[in-house]
Amino acid sequence: MMRFLLATLVFCLSFTSWAEDPTYGGELNVGTVSVTLSPLSWDPADWTWKSNHDHGSAREQLFAGDLTKSIRNGGPYAFVADAYLPTDSMRGELAESWYWEDPLTLVVKLREGVIFPAKPGIMEAREFVADDVIYSYDLVNDSPKRIPTYFDHIERLEARDEHTVVFHLNQYNAEWPYRFGYGYYSGISPREMEKVDRKRWQNVTGTGPFALERYVQANAQIYKKNEQYWDSALVGGSRHPLPFVDKVIYRIIKDEATYLTALRTGQLDILEAIRWIAVDHLKETTPELQWNRWLATSGQFIALRVDQKPFDDLRVRRALNLAVNQQEIVKHFYGGHAELMAYPQHPEFGAYFEPLEDMPESVQQLFSYDPEEARRLLKEAGVPEGFAFEMQVCSCSPSHMDLVPLLESYFSKVGLKANIRPMEYASFLSAMTTKTHGPAYLLSSGHVNPMTTIRKSFVTGQTWNPSQYTDPAFDEKVRILHLTRDEEERINMLRGLTREILEQAPYVWLPIPYVHTAWWPWVKNYGGELRAGAVRPWPIYARIWIDQEMKKQMGFE
Questions:
Q1: Residue-wise pLDDT tens digits, 286-301
Q2: Is-contact 258 268, C-beta < 8 A?
Q3: Which CATH number fits the domain that encloses residue 432?
Q4: Which residues contact 416 (CB under 8 A, 6 or more apart)?
Q5: How far is 452 from 157, CA to CA, in rounded Å?
Q6: For residue 407, what pLDDT is reported?
Q7: Is 70 exceeded by the pLDDT of residue 519?
Q8: Residue 467 has what pLDDT?
């Protein structure tokens, strides 16, 4: 009781003016949105989606989210989207300014005085210059693992002087700020990296607020403060150099009960992704925690390989959708904490998102439960007795492992047998990227942003196209979309493309759950923000400080 009363008093004090002055030191322990997953690679040329999450501490980018425009600071942006920065929410990070010299020439002025710290065995401390941007671009552009078409709009990069990079385009691409600005593959490394093994975590370096100090396999990633970091934050009317904490520690915890306990006992300062089912208990047992609720930014679905029978038949794919009682999943599996349809577009995308009730009847039908119609479609497709199929699922997802028995039951009611094959994440992901995955593949995949969610998932030959969907006419529409400069036109085009792909049902579309972020009140200058670029939280962490006195008074040393 004493702890609760003291915590309540300290919590109230946290909103008084004295707490507005940031303090330096201490460590921030985070269970991230990927708390169960170890790093996939330390080499930016490997094109892993998780790179910014793991080494975005050091490898800064040209652009990042402007956190002064967050909801917590009175702005309109939540900064939870996995890789979407509306134009007004974007700021220069390593870029100081930029402008279009002509319709196909983008000039980026780089910040001066930004320092790469000394890295033993790699480099002496020196200033960041334009050649580093060109080296980093060439590194990912020349990689054999590059996503097809990703940089096709860029003819070449030019260093006009030490602090000016010029992008010469061969055609406009509406995603230019994302593709090599704040996207998954936009991190800037020093050109000295060409002489060392980029796959070693010990060689990760850059201009960012934190350096990777140590990696303990499957346990933790420890990042230490970069004492030479260039940026500052305006807090309480004064500017303060960043970062505030001395260390950031990512805890890698594969078991859900263990990471929830770590939060409850103060071993974690922040746990970024908590399933709804655990929230009420945490609020009851640990009332001091602060909360933010957000709609998951990964779509979830069963990808059906349209290049394999019987899933090459639209009637079969529609039948599988109608066999799943999605309303029941929302109501009972998620306890109402989910949306029936929020993929491939996300409500946070504004006008790009079209609600289900505004969709054509043929789309709305896919989100209804109609086992009789499902059986009729299967009979019409020539498989009246049903069939068995393998469904692969990642054992790294507690939610998916819990959902699988329910899906099996739904399918069995229309004569289908799903043979479930759990896989560890590395094998699970490799199967998809090498196109050796099975005919049904239960996946969560990031919405990313309004255009990429369509391009990556449904354009012929794309790496993240698990259904192997292909339609030359659809591909051409997507190509034209990226050439379109007017946003209103893009919105209309994307709405049409989204309707088209929903109707084609290359996936069994599944509901999108709400997720919760929780943190202790000693975590200051934070409101549940998750990303300031493509899965990159590091500008957020750099601006957090720990109220050590509050933490001590609440009984945590």
A1: 999 999 999 999 999 9
A2: no
A3: 3.10.105.10
A4: 320, 323, 386, 387, 388, 389
A5: 23
A6: 97
A7: yes
A8: 97
Same domain, 325 and 454: yes
The answer to whether 71 and 78 have CB atoms below 8 angstroms apart is yes
β-strand partners of 169: 154
Q: Are residues 107 and 14 in the same domain?
A: yes
**100: phi then psi, degrees, rounded to nearest 5:** -90, 115
Q: Is the dihedral of CA 159, 160, 164, 169 positive or negative?
A: negative
Residue with tokens 């100081």: 96
Amino acid at 348: E
Distance (Å, whole) CA 439 – CA 71: 42
Convert the pLDDT of each residue in 353-380 to its tens digit.
Answer: 999 999 999 999 999 999 999 999 999 9
Q: Do 235 and 282 sit in the same domain of this protein? A: yes
Residue 363 sits at the vertex; the CA angle it makes with 362 and 365, to the nearest 5 degrees, is: 70
Residue 505 makes CB contacts below 8 A (sequence gap 6+) with 304, 314, 317, 318, 320, 321, 366
The full 3-state SS of 62-81, as one line of letters, equals: CEEECHHHEHHHCCCECCCC
* Mean pLDDT confidence for 138-148: 95
CA distance 150 to 462: 10
Q: Which residues lie across from 425 on neighbouring strands?
A: none
Flag whether pLDDT at 19 surpasses 60: no
What amino acid occupies position 399?
Answer: S
Helix (H, G, I), strand (E, B) or coil at 166: strand
Residue 9 predicted with pLDDT over 80? no
Question: Bridge partners of 210?
Answer: 225
Q: At residue 436, what is the residue type?
A: T
User: Does the pLDDT of residue 8 top 80, yes or no?
Assistant: no
Sign of the four-CA dihedral 240, 60, 54, 179: positive
Q: What angle do CA 531, 453, 334 make, to 5 degrees?
A: 70
Query: For the chain, how many structural domains are there in total?
Result: 2
**pTM of the predicted model, to two decimals?**
0.91
Q: How far is C-alpha 479 from the chain's CA centre?
A: 24
Range of the domain at 250: 2-289+520-553
DSSP for residue 45: G
pLDDT of residue 18: 39
Q: 194 and 338 in one domain?
A: no
